[in-house]
Write a structure and sequence with these properties.
477 residues, alpha+beta, Growth Hormone, Chain: A, two-stranded antiparallel sheet, 9% strand, globular
């Protein structure tokens, strides 16, 4: 592949992942802190990508690959996705925001596969040429996070500016796609839903170890999705500045561990690479608990840095394992099947459950034990839940209006009942500097996915067996 094509494809990959990274990390704090969405609604928002990941193979396999040139469908999808991002940035209610986000992700997620296929079509040896192109996506994720954090500052988590920036880049990407090399449709024959979902790979489930692997892969995606859905909100509650920038430490770690992964793989093999990946998910959550309980930041940062092992050692090893186990005739379908199980079904269940769990451990379901003090009116929005001291005891309420001249807030008071807290109808006025935002019981929330990851790891370690090509069972793959 000549230098011109390499540069053009690298720009494509950079723009592709810049869009996703721009809004994904800061969405949780924005939805909860500014729009006052519940934790369950935030979990639903994060399951939008999983829904799109489940449905996008149908579009790619049954429509895009059969009837349209790849560069043209990429352009149309990104232009439509940009419109939906701008519309989502204007939404104030969950009933409006969620369908618009679903619409955007339905446009965006198919483009991940389409940018890959367009790249492969221009390459003589994708195995050697593609990694250096695809790494631009990871670099882009880092650059987008740093840009959001440095340019927007506190507004990155309190305003829809990241969505608007993503919309602008989506428009740019849409226009750029029409300049990419012409890539005609690849498929001419009939394509069925069975082909799209890779259901022919179900024959591999007859082997006990493969069935155990698929089951564990699905189950481990449930606790790991807590990270993607609520780490941004959690870091904000821990007073971490520049959340989007800080979370790029995970992507930097991902690049490093991808480079050294062959060294580890040769020494650990499939089974212990998967175990190491699962174990680091549990370790990350325990580090979050330690950092939250002690008020120190280094465990939080170490938890972020573990992302390289968490992601590479589990997901990349899983794809390698499937490649080894599947006969050549169904290898592509097997990869599609495991992606459906993990990035689709597993992430959907995980994002949904994470929202339910966080809501159960948040006010008004429970009485919180920690608070983030509000420094000024910029850190407060109408509808926020706040806490203050009244007669030496904690009082809680929902902000109705904010008065800027005297820096006070009109608050509807909650009263405590046996099932939790309910609004009483009583209104008080409090100085903004006396208010704090009740925090969820994060120390209990993170323990749940940690324990879940350990349990799945233990069952997998006990039951899974991997035989290499020589028929020997052992550590090495």
């Amino acid at each position: 592949m000549n230098l011109q094509f390499r540069l053009r494809l690298s720009i494509m990959m950079f723009l592709e992942y810049f869009i996703w990274s721009s809004w994904y990390v800061t969405m949780g704090p924005y939805l909860g802190g500014t729009l006052n969405f519940t934790a369950q609604q935030i979990g639903f928002a994060y399951n939008s990508t999983a829904i799109a990941a489940i449905l996008s193979p149908f579009f790619v396999g049954m429509v895009a690959d059969r009837f349209f040139a790849t560069e043209k469908i990429l352009g149309v999808l990104h232009l439509a996705g940009g419109v939906l991002l701008f519309a989502a940035a204007q939404a104030k209610s969950f009933g409006t925001f969620y369908p618009l986000l679903i619409g955007h992700t339905l446009c965006y997620m198919p483009t991940l596969a389409l940018t890959n296929s367009l790249s492969f079509a221009q390459m003589k040896d994708p195995g050697k040429e593609f990694p250096s192109i695809r790494v631009m996506g990871t670099i882009s994720w880092i650059v987008a996070g740093l840009t959001v954090g440095s340019v927007f500052g506190a507004k990155a988590t309190t305003t829809p500016l990241p969505f608007q920036m993503a919309g602008v880049v989506s428009f740019l990407m849409g226009l750029y796609c029409f300049t990419l090399p012409h890539t005609p449709p690849r498929t001419t024959g009939a394509v069925t839903a069975r082909d799209v979902l890779g259901l022919d790979a179900l024959q591999l489930m007859k082997e006990k170890s493969f069935a155990i692997f698929v089951t564990a892969a699905f189950l481990i995606c449930i606790p790991l999705t807590f990270y993607f859905s609520f780490t941004g909100t959690f870091l904000g509650d821990c007073n971490v500045a520049n959340i989007a920038g800080k979370m790029t430490m995970g992507q930097a770690s991902e690049i490093f561990f991808m480079l050294v992964m062959p060294w580890f793989f040769a020494r650990l093999g499939v089974k212990w690479m998967l175990i190491a990946g699962m174990g680091c998910w549990a370790a990350r959550y325990l580090l979050f608990v330690q950092g939250y309980n002690t008020g120190t930041l280094w465990p939080l940062y170490l938890g972020l840095i573990l992302h390289g092992i968490c992601y590479d050692f589990f997901f990349v090893t899983a794809y390698i394992y499937v490649d080894k186990k599947a006969p050549e005739t169904i290898r592509g379908k097997a990869q599609g099947f495991i992606a459906f199980v993990t990035l689709g079904a597993g992430m959907f269940v995980g994002a949904t459950i994470s929202g339910i769990v966080v809501e159960q451990y948040s006010f008004p379901k429970i009485e919180p034990n920690k608070y983030a003090m509000v420094q000024d009116a910029a850190g407060l929005a109408e509808g926020n839940i706040v806490r203050w001291e009244a007669a030496g005891k904690s009082a809680f309420g929902k902000v109705k209006t904010i008065s800027q001249p005297d820096s006070s807030a009109s608050i509807e008071v909650y009263k405590k009942e046996s099932a939790g807290f309910v609004l009483s109808g009583e209104t008080v006025t409090q100085p903004i500097k006396s208010l704090g935002k009740p925090l969820p019981l994060w120390e209990k929330i993170w323990l749940l996915p940690a324990v879940g990851a350990v349990a799945i790891l233990a069952l997998f370690a006990f039951m899974f067996r991997f035989k290499d090509d020589s028929g020997k069972t052992g550590v090495k793959a």
